[in-house]
Amino acid sequence: MLLIEDVDSLVDPAKLVEDIAVALKAERVVLPRRALQVSGLWFAPMAAYVRGMGLGAKLVGIFPRGSPPVRALSVLFDAETGEILAAADGTKLTGWRTAAASALAARLLGVTEGAIVGIIGAGVQAEYHARVFRALFKPSKIFIYSRRRAAELAGRLGLVQAPLEAVMTAEVIIAATNSQEPVIKGALLRRDAVVISVGAPRPVRELDEDTKRRASCALIDSPEAAEETDDVAGLKTTTLESALSGAEICRGEIKLYKSVGYAPFDVAAIYHVYRRALELGRGRSAHLG
Prior knowledge:
single chain, Rossmann fold
């Protein structure tokens, strides 16, 4: 087993987007997601088989009093022998794979290089979305707003700290929060804005009714998204898989992508860093029994 401790140094954002697209086109089997909810925390196993990549499992929890609040462990198995190939920090991998899937969705929704990006939130997801979107779209400016930590993240990554109203004027708005009250105000969005919401399933709620009305439909990361979040309730939806296969993506006054997490993304992510670690001679061998 290869223990992969330095995930950040191994990820190639462009190649990770490609790996996620490959996983969505490949034969796969996904374990239906069931979560434990205890005293305000959410905890679930996310597992899938992806042909050509292997069997992957991630144990992930949202711990409201944790820092960071989302923590995870990812493991990759050989699908034929059962050998444990790799184990890695699933928290950082979740940040990378969620942002890479958002970048894939953004491309399908027509985002091009140079667009102004606005981010709401300053946690793990906000950081990795800033890193991936900067690498792949070379935005002319990245605004960030958060009630906490915006200044620290802006200073570390070279972002522009801004009030919420300024973020809402961006061409691409990314909501990366655990808020249970809507943070995206549809009435403030420019026409043709691309809204990306990556908050967790219920009870997280990031989009107000004006946003949903103006979007009228949504691109979603997985079939479960339509059932697990109120952010797209009542909207016509198209999955990333269908869009990659040529399905028409409905577009309203604004364009909307909603993510709640999908196990094949986790398989693609740990397969990506496992393959990169082998190529670069990185990681540490470990044996269990």
